[in-house]
TrEMBL record:
Protein family (similarity comment): Belongs to the D-isomer specific 2-hydroxyacid dehydrogenase family.
Recorded GO CC terms: peroxisome
GO molecular function, one term: hydroxypyruvate reductase (NADH) activity
GO biological process, one term: oxidative photosynthetic carbon pathway
Locations listed in the record: Peroxisome
Protein name per its UniProtKB record: glycerate dehydrogenase
Pfam family, any one: 2-Hacid_dh
Top EC class, one word: oxidoreductase
Pathway as given in its UniProt record: Photosynthesis; photorespiration; 3-phospho-D-glycerate from glycine: step 3/4
Domain D-isomer specific 2-hydroxyacid dehydrogenase catalytic positions: 29-342
Top-rank taxon: Eukaryota
EC numbers, comma separated: 1.1.1.29
Domain D-isomer specific 2-hydroxyacid dehydrogenase NAD-binding, residue spans: 129-322
Length: 354
């Protein structure tokens, strides 16, 4: 087992030992735990991604509940160690839980929580930012400016794509996909085509009502369509944003065949999970189609990019920051603490947790 790693301790005399593998924004989550008789231990090791061995050392011989991160591998080894340490609750500080083996948690009697909802708008806003940056070549133009290359206005300088009146395609129209769709429809009057396993009834109603509003005001109404296949979205849309969960059905959902049917000047955005795109195939597609642009928040082998991606001018890349607003990150931390309290510490029954 790895040597014990550095910890910051809150409320040392608390009855329940709760561990957080990272420091998280805000003070509310700390207060919630310490006010509810928890001894909170926050790992302060500077290592960005903790290994399974590091986390085993954090769990130790006694741990009632633990808050972990999406970069960590939560499987049988950790859940059985948590069970042996007397723990019954784990919360991921994320909505995505593809890093968590829920069946292993169930086998070991560990309740699992995630933090949906508080990051919906923040993540959708970042997807919208990536869409605009890619469509209007913001990063390329910024680099050009800083390199002192600007000699004056030119008719062909950094010509990009107009969004208004174009079609936005959303794959995975859940909380974030629907919020993104609304931003693009309301903000840029785009038409919608979406693909999801389930019907996005509220989104459809919104687009219908907004279309009627535009028409009543003498403007071109926006439209929506639920696609029968993902291929329909890829063929028809000018902008495609990916928002599904990552599981077996969405792994490499964007592959060479599907890239080939997209419009040559399409914009593809991914703020879901990296492995939803076959990143090597994407690099080849970007090389062969300079007018095809992508905005990526997530990568197949984070923190790395596949060879060649960093050289592509038609790619905008940011380091998994889609949920990085202060309000959201504090909300995620608060939800994670509540998950541990609500799932595990039954003795708090009847207490006001918020
Ligand atoms: N980049 C970032 O920082 C963030 C990334 N995420 C990612 O976004 C994902 C979505 O989050 P939410 O919208 O809150 O979840 P959600 O559960 O509301 O939406 C996911 C949608 O994907 C759909 N879906 C599942 N399998 C599909 C398939 N094979 N084809 C098409 N659609 C499919 C579901 O039916 C659902 O509507 C998370 O699982 C997470 O991985 C979430 C937050 C921040
Ligand atoms: O919540 C998630 O799933 C993330 O990716 C973190 O923002």
């Amino acid at each position: 087992m790895a040597k014990p790693i550095s910890m910051e301790v809150w409320n040392p005399s608390g009855k329940y030992r709760v561990v957080s593998t990272k420091s998280m924004p805000g003070a509310r989550w700390i207060r919630l735990l310490t006010d509810n008789d928890c001894r909170l231990e926050i790992c302060t090791d500077p290592k960005t991604i903790l290994s399974v061995d590091d986390i085993l050392a954090l769990i130790g011989d006694r741990c009632d509940g633990i808050i972990g991160q999406l970069t960590e591998d939560w499987g049988e080894v950790l859940f059985s160690a948590l069970k042996r340490a007397g723990g019954t609750a784990f919360s991921n500080m994320a909505v995505g839980y593809n890093n968590v083996d829920v069946e292993a948690a169930n086998r070991n009697g560990i309740a699992v929580g995630n933090t949906p909802g508080v990051l919906t708008e923040t993540t959708a806003e970042l997807a919208a930012s990536l869409t605009l940056s890619a469509a209007r070549r913001i990063v390329e133009a910024d680099q050009f400016m800083r390199a002192g290359l600007y000699e004056g206005w030119l008719p062909h300088l950094f010509v990009g794509n107009l969004l208004k009146g174009q079609t936005v395609g959303v794959i995975g129209a859940g909380r974030i996909g629907s919020a993104y769709a609304r931003m693009m429809i309301e903000g840029f009057k785009m038409n919608l085509i979406y693909y999801d396993l389930y019907q996005a009834t509220r989104l459809e109603k919104f687009v219908t009502a907004y279309g009627q509003f535009l028409k009543a005001n003498g403007e071109q109404p926006v439209t929506w369509k639920r696609a029968a296949t993902m291929e329909d979205v890829l063929r028809e849309a000018d902008v495609i944003s990916l928002h599904p969960v990552l599981d077996k059905t969405t792994y490499h959902l964007i592959n060479p065949e599907r890239l080939a049917i997209m419009k040559k000047e399409a914009v593809l955005v991914n703020a879901s999970r990296g492995p939803v795109i076959d990143e090597l195939a994407l690099v080849e597609h970007l090389k062969a189609n300079p007018m095809f642009r992508v905005g990526l928040d997530v990568f197949e082998d984070e923190p790395y990019m596949k060879p060649g991606l960093a050289d592509m001018k038609n790619a905008v890349v940011v380091p998994h920051i889609a949920s990085a607003s202060k309000w959201t990150r504090e909300g995620m931390a608060t939800l994670a603490a509540l998950n541990v309290l609500a799932c595990h510490l039954q003795s708090f029954r009847g207490q006001q947790l918020i």
